[in-house]
Design goal:
The N and C termini lie far apart (48 Å). 27% of the residues lie in helices and 32% in strands. Helix 2 crosses helix 3. The chain is of the alpha+beta class. It has five helices and eleven strands; from the N terminus they run E-H-E-E-E-E-E-E-H-E-E-H-E-H-E-H.
Length: 200
């Protein structure tokens, strides 16, 4: 299926089918970062810890093929509007908004994984007093970090001014916060949120 942005540009996200991903085991606790976060958020909601959901992305279906009478296959669709960030909700009376990305790069996180409208959205959330961050996973290293939006925005603006197009891993380690990996919850980012945003 072809997905396109409102501008008509083709979406080139992760096209791997879930059916073809390896099953989770203790060493690889989740199939993808999104799967891990969805399971974590479900854990938080079931225990009344936090109410965080993945934002649905409205899609306009353009073309459908019917290879069989009993089956319909969507072959072309458009995003109705530019997406903002992946997740939002409420924790301890504060609005939380974050983006989740992963990379196979071992030494830096490419800024091309983000879009300008996402960064502008993060700026607005911060300006209105919300908690905003990115969860970044180095998939080959099995390392996950929470990086406050202010640092991501600063690196984005530097790139816009002609600077480097990625955030060095050393900078993420310095300014970000390692998220412990576990079984339940899989990615306990709320414990990091507690330490970063509520400890003072």
């Amino acid at each position: 299926m072809t997905l396109k942005y409102p501008s008509g540009k083709e979406y080139r996200g992760n096209k791997t089918s879930i059916a073809h991903l390896p099953a989770a085991d203790y060493a690889n606790r989740g199939m993808t970062l999104e799967d891990d976060l969805n399971a974590t958020n479900e854990y938080y909601r079931e225990r009344s810890i936090a109410v965080i959901h993945k934002k649905p992305t409205p899609v306009q279906i353009v073309r459908v093929d019917y290879p069989k009478r009993s089956a319909a296959v969507i072959t072309e669709a458009y995003f109705r509007q530019a997406s903002t960030t992946d997740y939002n909700g409420v924790y301890r009376g504060k609005y939380i908004d974050f983006e989740a990305k992963e990379t196979r790069n071992k030494t830096a996180f490419p800024l091309k994984n983000f879009h300008a409208h996402q960064i502008r959205h993060m700026e607005q959330v911060v300006a209105h007093g919300g908690i905003c961050f990115a969860i970044l996973r180095f998939s080959l290293l099995n390392e996950t970090y929470l990086l406050d939006a202010s640092h991501l925005i600063a690196w984005w603006n530097e790139q816009e001014a002609g600077g480097r197009k990625s955030i060095p891993k050393q900078e993420i380690e310095r300014h970000g916060h390692s998220i412990p990996l576990g079984y339940q919850p899989r990615i306990d980012y709320i414990s990091v949120v507690d330490n970063v945003y509520f400890s003072g």
